[in-house]
């Protein structure tokens, strides 16, 4: 396994957890979604600012803006690895849920990744 898992941590043997290619891509999607632009020192434009938009008043316009922001960030940062087919973002009872349907460019495998975060 040539990649490290995100978040970094030990496996059952006490070594760094590894990831195959498909798991690594899923981990990268999670990093793009939940990294606030400006958070990374050498990549200040990395991320999509999803967590910042959660507290805005809920509306169809906001939902469309969030979807476009997420899709644009995934295309910018992972466009060589995946083709994003759909993004669904919802917030209920202080929990943010994001579903991303995508196709791995290598092997043309369709995937669905679900991510949840408790909101502060």
From TrEMBL:
Please give the residue ranges the record annotates as the region Disordered: 1-21
Which protein, by its recorded name, is this? GPW/gp25 family protein
Enumerate the InterPro entries for this protein. IraD/Gp25-like
IraD/Gp25-like domain mapped to chain residues: 21-106
Composition bias (Basic and acidic residues) maps to: 10-21
